[in-house]
Amino acid sequence: MTRWARSRAAGKRTPKRVPPAWPNFQIVEELRIEVPGYMPPRGTNEERRMHYHAKEKLIDLAMDRLATALILGGGRRCVEGPLEAHWTVYANRLLDWSNLSASFKIPEDALRYLGVIEDDRPAIVRRFVPHQVQVPKGHEGLLIVLRHLGEEEAPELPRWRPAGRCGAATGGTR
Length: 174
Prior knowledge:
By secondary structure, the protein is an alpha/beta fold. 28% of the residues lie in helices and 22% in strands.
């Protein structure tokens, strides 16, 4: 049971999430996190209708699983941005692409709370590449590969430039 779940069970107010006190994070260029047996929520339909307490329980579960995978995989490591995230779900039933992309939200928040990534905003996570592989039942899991992008590799964030009046940018009429 995580410390957040324990504080809820004891009737205390849930504290704001802070990264655990893991000193001496090792900054790496590429981080591979394998989580066998963990399946993220199945996309937008589940997450959108979820009560925030239920969502916090899922984030706590993801934090426990990811922290265990990090410790078993070599300890306290993090990737500084800008970075690209390859997200591979090994599942018995394949998802459509929009639900597969949306299923990254809870584990991504867990990675942020654990201090593995600095933030989940687009300035940090510049590329997101979802993959899925169909496997037999009982062999489900998750693979997250985070790779630091050098300044020359990182794509420029698109800028929005207002056109002024309607149709002014395309030469159209009102």
